[in-house]
Specification:
16 strands; four-stranded antiparallel beta sheet; eight-stranded mixed beta sheet; elongated; 2 domains; 401 residues; alpha+beta
């Protein structure tokens, strides 16, 4: 795309051309451009904003990545549609923009959310900092106009944990070769992302560098996701057991954002095609014991997700159904939501259930996670005992003890 030509006409008929300047030539730095974009996210050329759907903006919030290193995403946008956008801002003269470093940084930001549980997400996005309210409460505070907060909270969490986010590298001018570099990296990448390059170009009146600055956004590139094979090697620190390896081949998404709603029949068809005995067993376990027979997670997802819901009682004494576990087809683990369970069953029932899980999966449970990920291999090995554990919990929940 060629650079825009901007001409200002005055009432007397005279004209003044605007000329493009780098942010640095204006005596400004990256923080300045970041502040401009955070204040005016419409400069990112997002269709959601063009359609009047406005995001909540988060700047410079610290986060631990999977290696426990602190990372600080420049800008994160959360939308009431459940969409998540992560933005890395660079100036043209930053050496990182001419190498893979800027791309590596934004990938690191996205991957840092993959293992984050609800309490960690609540802490990160909450305006209260160290206080840790429930994740749903944080989302409700962010988007009070949304009716189905449970659905929205689940969608945002799902997209963050699966890496299904939109990544944007924003700069004042893209160096030669950056577009080609992004295309090459995107074709090789294993992340289910959309990656865009947006140039936010400053213009000033010719001969007047100290006047008002006009910013023009140019979306230079949006990548497409292609067929790719993901090989995940999981190694638990301190474990003497062999690492677990899972292989997943993904297909090209549709042209409407790569997400869709799934029916129970859709998921069952995908499970049959997958041909995994343990996934079949877990699906029918969920159908047997889930509250109201509900097994499908709410909202649009890239891959089919099923789970089991348990009915209990919330803090206000009203009946509440929360997801106990879910399984995303193609993933090598089962996610159990102890944080949700704790809010709908008596303390003694919760503690006994945790003890039962600890007896079955001591290596994972010893880490004290609120959303433990249990390897499907381990679940298959202990499936009879796991089913007994679920049956016990349902009976206790139904007895309202």
């Amino acid at each position: 795309m060629t650079n825009p030509i901007i001409i200002e006409t005055n009432p007397d008929g005279s004209t003044v051309p605007f000329v493009e300047k780098s942010v640095r030539a204006l005596g400004k730095n990256e923080e300045y451009l970041e502040e401009v974009i955070a204040s005016h996210p419409e400069l990112l050329e997002l269709e959601l904003i063009k359609n009047g759907i406005l995001p909540k903006v988060f700047r410079q919030r610290e986060l631990k990545n999977t290696l426990e290193n602190t990372v600080v995403p420049d800008i994160i946008l959360l939308f009431p549609t459940g969409d998540v956008v992560i933005v890395e801002v660079k100036l043209m003269d930053n050496p990182e923009l001419r190498s893979r470093m800027a791309i590596a940084q934004i990938f690191d930001y996205a991957s840092a959310f993959v293992d984050k549980q609800e309490d960690e997400l609540a802490r990160f996005f909450s305006k209260y900092g160290s206080a840790v309210p429930l994740w749903e409460h944080v989302v409700q505070e962010l988007f009070p106009e949304v009716q189905d907060i449970e659905n929205l909270a689940e969608q945002i969490k799902s997209r963050l944990q699966s890496g299904a986010v939109h990544l944007i590298i924003a700069c004042d001018t893209a160096p030669v070769g950056l577009k080609r570099l992004i295309k090459g990296v995107a074709q090789q990448s294993a992340l289910p992302f959309d990656l865009s390059l947006v140039e936010v170009k400053p213009f000033v009146r010719s001969g007047c560098d100290k006047g008002n600055v006009l910013f023009v956004a140019v979306k230079s590139l949006t990548t497409n996701i292609i067929n790719r094979t993901v090989v995940t090697v999981r190694y638990e620190e301190g474990s003497v057991s062999r690492p677990s390896v899972s292989v997943l081949t993904t297909s090209p998404p549709d042209n409407n954002g790569a997400t869709r709603f799934w029916t129970t029949e859709d998921v069952e068809t995908e499970i049959e095609a997958l041909g995994s005995p343990i996934v079949k067993k877990l699906f029918y376990l969920a159908r047997t014991y889930s509250s109201g027979g509900r097994v499908i997670s709410p909202g649009k997802t890239r891959k089919p997700v099923f789970g089991m819901y348990l009915e209990g009682t919330c803090s206000k004494g009203q009946p509440k159904s929360s997801q106990l576990f879910n399984q995303r087809l193609g993933d090598a683990n089962l996610r159990i939501y102890l944080n949700m369970l704790e809010n709908i069953v008596p303390t003694e029932v919760y503690e006994q259930f945790v003890m039962k899980l600890d007896a079955l999966f001591p290596e994972v449970m010893s880490r004290g996670l609120r959303e433990p990920l249990i390897s499907l291999v381990d679940v298959e090995t202990k499936f009879v005992e796991f089913e007994d554990c679920i049956r016990w919990l349902v009976e206790k929940s139904n007895s309202k003890c």
